Amino acid sequence: LQLLTEVLSDLARHANHVGTSLAILSQRESPDRYRQLLTGIRTGPIGLDFDPSVFAVNGQPAHKVFRQLHDLVLHVTARDALRDYDESVKEVALGRGEVDWIEFLPLLLEAEYAGWITVQRTQGEDRAGDARRALVYLQNVLFQ
Fold first, then answer.
1. What Rg value do the Cα atoms of the chain yield, rounded?
2. Residue in 57, 115, 63 with CA at minimum distance from that of residue 81
3. What's the maximum distance between 2 C-alpha atoms anywhere in the chain?
């Protein structure tokens, strides 16, 4: 953890120097581990690129994790995924996976999240179409 903290501190210092913020990608870590890592860096702004699908497929409801980490979130990646019967993870169209978007999205408003939400679709036969439909889905959930 110390080496990772040192490397991220150097990156955050450089990001601060050039006028940007560093956001690390969500992985299979616990919320406590993210908090420990990110609050230990004081050389520049650093936070989390929150991908709800990563937490959902690992048995951690995204809305609960976001409640724990919202003050550290700099960016939200909108993806969805399913865990198959063989424990493999498959990205699916937004709204068709394990993320409870109806529970998660209002938390962004409640937390006064002002960052970007980026729809990302890396698999599937109609990625551009899925991304367009994802935007409509997000708007419908947020502004119903």
1. 16
2. 57
3. 47
Beta bridge partners of 78: 119
Structure tokens at 9: 């501190």
C-alpha to C-alpha distances, 102 to 50, 69, 115, nearest whole angstrom: 17, 19, 19
Taking only the tens place, the pLDDT of each residue in 1-46 is 789 999 999 999 999 999 999 999 999 899 999 999 999 999 989 9
Residue carrying structure tokens 């990110």: 38
Count of alpha carbons within 13 angstroms of residue 72, beta-carbon side: 26
Distances in whole angstroms, Cα of residue 10 to Cα of each of 19, 42, 45, 108: 14, 10, 11, 30
Q: Which ranges in the chain belong to alpha helices (H)?
A: 2-17, 31-39, 52-56, 62-69, 101-110, 127-142
Q: Global pTM?
A: 0.91
